[in-house]
Structure formats: structure tokens, C-alpha cells
Amino acid sequence: GAPIQTATGAVTATAGSGGVFITETDGASFTATATGAGPVSLASTTGTLTIAGATSTGTGSIAISGNTIVQNANLTTGGPITVTAAAGPITMAGGSQSTAGGNVTYQAAGDITLRSLTSGAVAGVTSTGGSILDGNAAALNVSAGTTALQAGGVIGTLTDPLEIAVAGLANVNANGAQSGVSVNINGTTGDNTLQFPLTVPGQ
């Protein structure tokens, strides 16, 4: 069936294995829980979508989409997580974490400020018109089997680099530069290197 359409300030939804499917028309704060393989799909067609409370499912997918995303609480599933901001930034705030047994994918038109992403497979973060920034100081930002980080601006900053721990490859690409450096990352990878395309202006 079609997602439930709402126009309200806050939405809390709980479902079984059938999942949660909600589309908000003017921005809202969400908390959603499903069980088993039930997916969670939360969307806002305008304004800012805020994850206000812990949102989870057993093994189903979690899909969050809006013009701008603010994540103030945890996303947790044994399946994949996808968070998409079509017109602005994604900001992970507070102590928020995203933990998935499958892939974790964050994509935004603006900056993406990361706290903690944990994936049992691939963690992919793409900011088409902004930068990928560290939102939790020296704590780990990305833990995954492999990762792919791509930014229209920079990845990390000279004063606050991203922290990663991946078992396999870390593919990075940034089109911007800060003091001549485009990528600032601390941590470990499977081959102890970062994989750069030839176009990256600095490392």
C-alpha cells in the first residue's frame, strides 16, 4: 500500500513485521519502530525531517529522506540504512549513531556532519555540494568492511579530521581543498592506505 500521508509536528509510529511507511508534507520529528524484517520508510516532502527518537527495525531496511535531515537519535537495523537530503545538509547531532548489519548510505546536497556510522558491509557517504565533516571530535566516525567517501568540498578538516576503521579499502574523493589539502582522515584500513582518484588536489 501507499505510505501514510501526514501534516503534523511530531510523529511516533510502532509496527510489527509489516513495517512503517510515512510521508510528511511540511517537515516533522519522527520516532519509528518495526520488528522482524519490517522496513521503516520516513520521508518529508518539504522542510526539515528530524529523527527525534530511537528508530529501529529487526532486519528490515531503514530509509530516511527529506530536503534537510537532522538526526538527533540512533538508527539501528540488521539490514541497510539509507539517509538522503535532496536539497541541504545531513547533520548528526547529540550522541546519535547509525548501526546496520548491511550497507549504510548517506547522501546530501549540502554538508554531511558525521557522528558514528557502523556498517557490517559498506559505509558510503556522498556530499555532492558540500563537505563531509567530523561531528564527534576524536571519536570514530566510520566503522565498516569498506567505505567510500566523496565530497564536493573537503573530507575532514586540518583541525578536525575524520576517524575511520575499515577492514578493507577506503575510497575517497574530494573536489575542494583547505590550505591545499582536500582529505583529512585518521584511522586504519585493510591495506593501510587511502584510495585516491588522480583528480584529488591534496591529501
Q: What's the SSE pattern?
A: EEEEEEEEEEEEEEEEEEEEEEE
Distance between the termini: 48 Å
Sheet having the most strands? 9 strands, parallel
Ranges with pLDDT <50 over ≥5 residues? none
* Biggest sheet: strand arrangement: 1-3-5-8-11-14-17-20-22
What is the percent of helical residues?
under 10%
The number of distinct β-strands equals 23
What's the gyration radius in Å? 17 Å
Spatial shape: globular
Task: Briefly summarize what is shown.
This protein is an all-beta fold and 203 residues long.
What features would you highlight for this structure?
single chain; 203 residues; mainly beta; nine-stranded parallel beta sheet; 23 strands; globular
How would you characterize this protein structure?
The chain is an all-beta fold and 203 residues long. Helices cover 0% and strands 48% of the residues. It has no helices and 23 strands. The protein has strands spanning 4-6, 10-14, 20-24, 28-33, 40-44, 48-51, 55-56, 62-66, 68-71, 75-77, 81-85, 90-92, 97-100, 104-108, 112-114, 116-119, 122-127, 132-134, 142-144, 146-151, 162-166, 170-174, 185-188. The strands form 3 sheets. A 9-stranded parallel beta sheet has the order 1-3-5-8-11-14-17-20-22, with no helix packed on it. The termini are far apart.
